[in-house]
Amino acid sequence: MSAAAPRRPLVAANWKMNHLRADAEAFCRRLLAADSPYGREAVAPAVDAVLFPSFPLLPAVAAGLASSAAGSALTWGGQDLHPAAAGAHTGDVSGAQLADAGCTWALVGHSERRHDHGEADELVAAKITAALASGLQPVLCLGESGDERRAGLTREVLDRQLDAALAVLPRDAAGFAVAYEPVWAIGTGETATPDVCQQAHVHLRRRVAAQRDEETAARLRILYGGSVKPGNAGELFAAADVDGFLVGGASLDADSFLAIIRACA
Q1: pLDDT at 194 over 90
Q2: Which residues form the catalytic set?
Q3: Cα diameter, the chain
């Protein structure tokens, strides 16, 4: 299935609640430097990259990347969104507001949202619907905790989280991505082995094929997220069904992020 439909690599930087405006501006300048794959004089980039800054930094990122010649290969998105289009939801952000800020992507169901804010699969599904309604491409985050893995529940957890999303994704939906982020490997320094990644990604792809069709499954980009660094990115990306990364801590430094991108090129 993997060899039948080559997938363009995607590497996403999730800055979480980090950086200030000056940091974001410096990061963008580095991405557009002459020696960067996204520099003004560079040939067409081989890897799609997306930045997920916190909401106050979206204008700085939009302005910082405005002069990029990379087009759709270098974009930005929101770390979350509310399922409602508008209304009395203090502290939340709508899909329309993200789109108005130039976003093309939205993270949905990140493990820290599920854990810190108690987001259930039904809410995650509603956010996917909201993202699509605003013209945003959702990145569905899913993954098992350490306790769930030790209990042998990895596939059951992945199926539950994926099925809830597929239930609301139109059959003609294109451009969405999935990020497998084993909770036990996020910010812990513990990284899933390439074999563990491949097993999880193959399972997810087969689940999509069973729920939808082989073509959709073969086209779907499945990212890995969990303590990805320049030192392990190449080995992880060598797994046939790993199509890129959702990078946390290592994405805060532009050179580190670029090194991970180059590992996927």
Answers
A1: yes
A2: 110, 181
A3: 51
